[in-house]
Predict the 3D structure of the following.
Amino acid sequence: MSEYVYILFDKPENNLIIGETSNLLMHMHELKNKTNDIYKDEYPTNKLAYYERFEEFSDAIIRKNELEQLPKEDLLQLIKSDNPDLSDLHEKILKIWNDEGKLHDKEQIKSKKGENI
């Protein structure tokens, strides 16, 4: 089973939230639709800016802790290295999932960037 470390934002200059989940698509669905009570009162930080995939839970936790120690400027630089437009990656990964039945790597997301999603 895969584990994901992710960074969410509402506006890059405002909140950046770092988290970990074993089901990125379901987690994003719950965040966006506020279907889980723990998200109902959260501020609107629900755009997926960045994620990394890990095979081991322990590796994901280590990486999450590393990211949480970085200054905001470094996190923004990391995000922009993969997502220069600071777009919400949720719709892109959802389309890939629907098209191919699985979550693919970032290179496939980048190649679909020019498509209307």
In short: The helical segments are 24-33, 57-69, 72-82, 90-100, 106-112. The CA atoms of residues 92 and 116 lie 10 Å apart.
